[in-house]
């Protein structure tokens, strides 16, 4: 009995509906994974989201796996970076129509990294490398490799790394001091997909898998708790004031409001006892401060006992017939004299410059006279009377292993940022989470000054000692937290990832195989 044309068409429609439903479910699974990250940090759902994704990938052919990975990634990134759309409404008349296409396009582009991880997993799994505990190890390895590539390809965008699910859990974030965020993400993903693997695979229902999982989890917690217990350092005798002016982004560069902005920051900075260091956020001063002697003197007269004043500020330099612009943090002494500064080297595409400007007909979201030029890289500032300071401007703090000058290690990090572009969305909370992980990785306190929030003081173990929430106006007065000794990750960077992965593969796959072979040999004898 043959099918009619109508029946075939009906079957095709049903198949299409089922395929779309399947794709929608995977997108939702990816979006739900965002709930494992700050500001939610619902760690309990990680086995369901990552484990469900792992279960779906099992047995798929490489191309199908890649499509599935891209679909999962689309939900993951759209759910995690949707707040970027808010920046397009700062100048709504020009850019609001681009908000949704921009978020969708960026999410679709970033989704190629989970697609690559899924493709690699499917290819290697077909060669029987996924038997036993090798399955979750292989998945975690491919996922971590894709995350590392996402943080380095082109300019890199390591936002919402999987390890950030552990930021709010004090002992569990501490191992980043030894293995970094990528290494911690590898162990996290392995652990959360292992239950699904043990349930779904009869070949893996062995005590060894449960023992290894419990051993890794206990080691993470134990090592982290030990780092928290060992050594309680006293704060330094250096006092710091962080000013959060809470100036809306759409008002920051309006000429008629310039005086109000400067006065607000001066009033906040000069109230009460004046500290040793005063910190203002990224581009807090709406102009070229090094060219305005009157304002420099005015600021420093209000801060008579301050040793160092540091502020985010644009800068410009004439080169031949052209002028080049930098996004900088500049330092000044009590007499208003420049002590040097730092120029941001990781610039935001389409925010601070337009990539391939000669060929791409796009405008920048920010108003200025020209594109910013990147600085030479991380730099430690030696300023009189205070400990050495490293500077990371805005989203530079999201790059593991790239926030500190390796030649001269600072004693603290000043993260000047302006998250006013993103309103009260979850973006600033995610940004803060990245800063906390950098503090743990480097063993250095991070002092964060944000225009509209979240300003914060973070110690070298990633604890938030003080914070000013979004859309609050005020100051944080704190003693400068102490630095810890240089961490293993600070010494070797992402090279710590390789021995970690190899050790896990040996314990999870190599050692059981050796034991099995020895047992078979003994029986043979």
The tally of structural domains comes to: 2
- Global geometry: globular
Count the E strands.
12
Give the H and E element order: HHHHHHHHHHEHHEHEEEEEEHEEEEHH
Q: Extract low-pLDDT stretches.
A: none
Q: Oligomerization state of this entry?
A: single chain
Summarize the main sheet. 6 strands, mixed
Q: Structural class, please?
A: alpha/beta
Helical content class: 40-55%
The percentage of residues in β strands lies in 5-15%
Give the N-to-C terminal Cα separation: 62 Å
Using only C-alpha atoms, the radius of gyration works out to 26 Å
- Counted by DSSP, the helix tally is 16
Strand order, largest beta sheet: 5-4-3-2-1-12
EC number: 2.3.1.269
GO molecular function: N-acyltransferase activity
Membrane topology: Multi-pass membrane protein
Pfam families: CN_hydrolase, LNT_N
Descriptive tags:
2 domains, alpha/beta, 6-stranded mixed β-sheet, 12 strands, globular, 525 residues, lipoprotein, single chain, 14% strand, transmembrane, acyltransferase, membrane, 16 helices, Nitrilase/N-carbamoyl-D-aminoacid amidohydrolase, Apolipoprotein N-acyltransferase
């Amino acid at each position: 009995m043959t099918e009619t044309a109508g029946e075939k068409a009906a079957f095709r429609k049903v198949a299409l509906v089922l395929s779309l439903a399947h794709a929608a479910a995977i997108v939702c699974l990816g979006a739900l994974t965002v709930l494992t990250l700050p500001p939610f940090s619902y760690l309990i759902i990680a086995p369901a989201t990552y484990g469900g994704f792992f279960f779906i990938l099992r047995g798929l052919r490489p191309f199908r796996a890649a499509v599935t990975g891209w679909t999962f990634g689309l939900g993951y990134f759209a759910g995690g970076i949707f707040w970027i759309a808010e920046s397009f409404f700062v100048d709504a008349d020009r850019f609001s129509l681009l908000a949704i296409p921009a978020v969708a396009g960026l999410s679709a582009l970033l989704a190629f990294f989970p697609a690559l991880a899924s493709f690699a997993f499917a290819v290697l799994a077909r060669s029987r490398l996924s038997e036993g505990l090798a399955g979750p190890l292989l998945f975690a390895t491919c996922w971590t490799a894709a995350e590392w590539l996402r943080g380095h390809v082109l300019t890199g965008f390591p936002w919402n790394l999987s390890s950030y699910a552990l930021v709010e859990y004090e002992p569990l974030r501490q191992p980043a001091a030894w293995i970094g965020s990528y290494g911690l993400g590898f162990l996290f993903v392995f652990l959360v997909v292992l239950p699904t693997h043990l349930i779904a695979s009869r070949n893996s229902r062995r005590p060894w898998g449960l023992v290894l999982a419990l051993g890794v989890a206990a080691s993470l917690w134990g090592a982290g708790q030990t780092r928290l217990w060992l050594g309680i350092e006293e704060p330094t005798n250096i006092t710091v004031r962080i000013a959060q002016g809470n100036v809306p982004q759409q008002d920051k560069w309006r000429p008629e409001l310039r005086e109000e902005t400067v006065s607000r920051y001066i009033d906040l900075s000069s109230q009460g006892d004046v500290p040793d260091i005063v910190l203002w956020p990224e581009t807090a001063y709406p102009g070229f401060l090094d060219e305005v002697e009157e304002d420099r003197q005015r600021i420093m007269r209000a801060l008579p006992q301050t040793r160092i004043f540091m502020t985010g500020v644009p800068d410009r330099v004439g080169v031949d017939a052209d002028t080049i612009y930098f996004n900088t943090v500049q330092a000044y002494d009590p007499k208003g004299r420049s002590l040097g500064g730092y120029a941001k080297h990781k610039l935001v595409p389409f925010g601070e410059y337009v990539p391939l400007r000669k060929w791409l007909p796009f405008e920048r979201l920010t108003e200025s006279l020209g594109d910013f030029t990147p600085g030479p890289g991380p730099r430690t500032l030696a300023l009189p009377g205070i400990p050495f300071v490293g500077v990371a401007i805005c989203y530079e703090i999201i790059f593991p292993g790239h926030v500190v000058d390796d030649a001269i290690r600072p004693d603290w990090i000043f993260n000047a940022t302006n998250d006013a572009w993103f309103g009260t969305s979850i973006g600033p909370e995610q940004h803060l989470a990245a800063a906390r992980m950098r503090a743990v990785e480097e063993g250095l306190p991070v002092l964060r000054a944000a225009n509209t929030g979240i300003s914060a003081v973070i110690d070298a173990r990633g604890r938030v000692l003080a914070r000013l929430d979004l859309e609050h106006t005020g100051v944080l007065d704190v003693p400068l937290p102490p630095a810890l000794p240089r961490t293993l990750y600070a010494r070797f960077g992402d090279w710590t990832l390789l021995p970690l992965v190899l050790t896990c593969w040996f314990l999870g796959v190599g050692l059981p195989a050796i034991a099995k072979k020895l047992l078979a040999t003994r029986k043979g004898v």
